[in-house]
């Protein structure tokens, strides 16, 4: 059993990967480099709003999380990007440098889509670009910028309904997201680096030069585009491919610390030692963007709830705050929690929570959670599954997925203080409990 006290509240849970800006910390080789992740609501972030309280920031992050998978039927024709659209303000951010000489861009990073794109000059018309503080990227100023032809393999990697042939045989793309955001422009190639010195540079990277763009994530005018980190062929991760050994990992620190989380590529991403468990990674050919693993069941205290979904039934998504489960499984978990703890169920839990309960005194014992992935049992600390919202009110950091039955999501709050490695060549995801404040 875990004991939760009033000293532990959701104010300490704002470290989700869905709310970070990235900065390269150190570079050793092309195959191995580390990126710092700074919380979206940190004073170091360009999105920082000093007028908001910690609780308001948490609720906004949670609502962005919900927006990522809330879909309308009209969007189902876009299988590569529809399941996890970018949220209302932007989930987390990456600082990248494009072109020669390199131009700094701050872009929303998204593990639920593939295309890398930024706003480019000129816009198709006065209303076809969203407002941003920095100048638009001008491809004419980069000596290494080239457009991609309609007949190139890179153009055909876009779904058939997302590319056309423009003037001068240039590959034109249309990329849409489930929250009605979209980008239209030309597919191009240029150098992309991760620091201003160009020490970590990947030439001839494929990205979209957007001339007609509409987004819901840029209320502060800081973001200039989006970096797709999914598993599809045009994502940044896939393009870096051999250069990083098809490996990346991250370690998310709890909020309220003065430390940054780490995103690692290449050899640095490998995790090893006692406590490492691995589960097979599956990429679905019909939706190649998403990182799928198999959840066999979840233990809540002495009760084990088996999954009734098909294999490869849960998606690893570092851009979603909560963990989403099949409604029947969620209901069984709620029953197990209430039977194993001295809490009184709240009929109408505060948004965005799906289950909350009242407890007496200054602390409450709650049952432990173990996620049983195929070949990997991952025991989660209490702070990864519960939060004390206010005086004597504890809530689960789980939600039922009522929008897309059959799709479950392993969100980032569940992954805090774990090293999580994605080995796309070895087809596995590995977990290891860690003090991420000490991750180098």
Automatic annotation (TrEMBL):
Keywords: Aspartyl protease, Glycoprotein, Hydrolase, Protease, Signal. Residues 92-432 form the Peptidase A1 domain. PROSITE patterns: PEPTIDASE_A1. SUPFAM superfamilies: Acid proteases. Residues 1-26 form the signal peptide. It holds the Pfam family TAXi_N. Belongs to the peptidase A1 family. This is Peptidase A1 domain-containing protein. The lineage of its organism: Eukaryota, Viridiplantae, Streptophyta, Embryophyta, Tracheophyta.
């Amino acid at each position: 059993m875990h004991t939760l006290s009033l000293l532990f509240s959701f104010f300490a849970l704002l470290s989700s990967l869905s709310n970070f800006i990235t900065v390269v910390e150190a570079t050793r080789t092309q195959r191995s480099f580390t990126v710092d992740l700074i919380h979206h609501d940190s004073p170091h972030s360009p999105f920082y709003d000093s007028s908001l309280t910690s609780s308001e920031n948490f609720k906004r992050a949670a609502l962005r999380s919900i927006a990522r998978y809330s879909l309308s039927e009209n969007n189902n024709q876009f299988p590569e990007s529809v399941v996890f659209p970018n949220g209302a303000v932007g989930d987390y951010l990456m600082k990248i440098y494009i072109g020669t000489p390199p131009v700094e861009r701050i872009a929303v990073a998204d593990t639920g889509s593939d295309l890398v794109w930024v706003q480019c000059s000129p816009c198709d018309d006065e209303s076809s670009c969203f407002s941003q503080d920095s100048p638009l990227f001008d491809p004419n100023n980069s000596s290494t910028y080239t457009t991609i032809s309609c007949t190139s393999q890179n153009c055909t990697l876009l779904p058939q309904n997302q590319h056309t042939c423009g003037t001068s045989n240039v590959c034109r793309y249309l990329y849409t997201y489930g929250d009605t955001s979209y980008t239209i422009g030309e597919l191009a190639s240029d150098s992309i680096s991760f620091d201003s010195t160009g020490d970590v540079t990947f030439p001839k990277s494929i990205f979209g030069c957007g001339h007609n763009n509409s987004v819901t994530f840029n209320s502060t005018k800081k973001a200039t585009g989006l970096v797709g980190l999914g598993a599809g062929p045009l994502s940044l991760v896939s393009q870096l491919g051999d250069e990083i050994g098809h490996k990346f990992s991250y370690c998310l620190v709890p909020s309220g610390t003065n430390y940054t989380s780490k995103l690692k590529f290449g050899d640095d991403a490998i995790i090893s030692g006692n406590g490492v468990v691995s589960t097979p990674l599956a990429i679905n050919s019909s939706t190649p963007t998403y990182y799928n693993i198999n959840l066999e069941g979840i233990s809540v205290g002495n009760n084990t709830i088996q999954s009734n979904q098909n294999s490869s039934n849960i998606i690893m998504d570092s851009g979603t705050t909560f963990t989403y489960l099949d409604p029947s499984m969620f209901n069984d978990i709620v029953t197990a929690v209430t039977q194993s703890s001295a809490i009184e169920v709240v009929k109408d839990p505060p948004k965005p929570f799906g289950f909350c309960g009242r407890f007496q005194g200054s602390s409450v014992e709650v049952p432990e959670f173990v996620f049983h992935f195929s070949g990997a049992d991952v025991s989660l600390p209490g702070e990864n599954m519960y939060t004390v919202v206010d005086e004597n009110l504890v809530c689960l950091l789980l939600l039922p997925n009522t929008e897309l039955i059959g799709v479950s999501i392993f969100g980032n709050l569940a992954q805090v203080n774990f090293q999580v490695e994605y080995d796309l060549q070895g087809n596995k995801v590995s977990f290891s409990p860690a003090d991420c404040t000490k991750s180098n």
